[in-house]
Amino acid sequence: MKLGGKVALVTGASRGIGKAIAEMFVREGASVVITSKDPKRLKSTAKEISAFAVIADIRKDIQVRNAVKTAIDKFGRLDILVNNAGIFPKIKKLHLISEKEWNDVIDVNLTGQFRFTKYAIPHLQKHGGVIINISSDAGLKAYENFNADAYTASKGALVLLTKSWALQYAKDKIRVNCICPGVVETDMTQGFLSSLADREILNAEYPIGRIGTVEDVAKSALFFASDDSSWVTGAVLPLDGGESAK
């Protein structure tokens, strides 16, 4: 077990990528705290994967702070933080986006990651640890007709923050790395996969010949969380079947 004795907190883990990461960490021996603002789904997922659930809306500072405190109260320490929670906006060109729509995405996808990291750092500083940011290949390059500017901005910022945090906290033995998935099949991406033709078009975009799975992301997160990557910090992993290399 690669994570035996470790305590991990995974945000946005009631479904999709977060759930897959949390489940893999549990299998690898970690005690895992999962957060979400959906109580019913969070409770169900926690029971299914044997994780500890804490309801937390990433947009609310007091709930984020309480989630980290609850994890510490329950397990006595924190070794791994996975900043996974995120939302995807309606596709619109920039001049059609309202300021509220912009702010809603930035608040969840960027400021929310700041909140969880801020409260986790003092605990990680005690004995070292790992922060894994889940960004997107949309944070690495611009894509034609991908009109989701707030999402792109938030994911691009998270890439650079990964490098900044890695340098800030290296002396505290805190490693900070980032995973940038392409399209991964989750309920969030079902709108892009509504037909076989849509799926085939998306698969063809990737040199490997397929879109991603949540297990692809979970395996990469395990690498960054474990001692297999003990000399890796500030790394940004394009996890997109070669698409961003084009």
From TrEMBL:
Keywords: Oxidoreductase
InterPro entries tied to this protein: NAD(P)-bd_dom_sf, Sc_DH/Rdtase_CS, SDR_fam
GO MF assignments: oxidoreductase activity
Gene3D superfamilies with a match to the protein in the record: NAD(P)-binding Rossmann-like Domain
Pfam families: adh_short_C2
PANTHER family referenced in this protein's UniProt entry, alphabetically: BLR0893 PROTEIN, DEHYDROGENASES, SHORT CHAIN
Recorded family membership: Belongs to the short-chain dehydrogenases/reductases (SDR) family.
Protein name, UniProt field: Short-chain dehydrogenase/reductase SDR
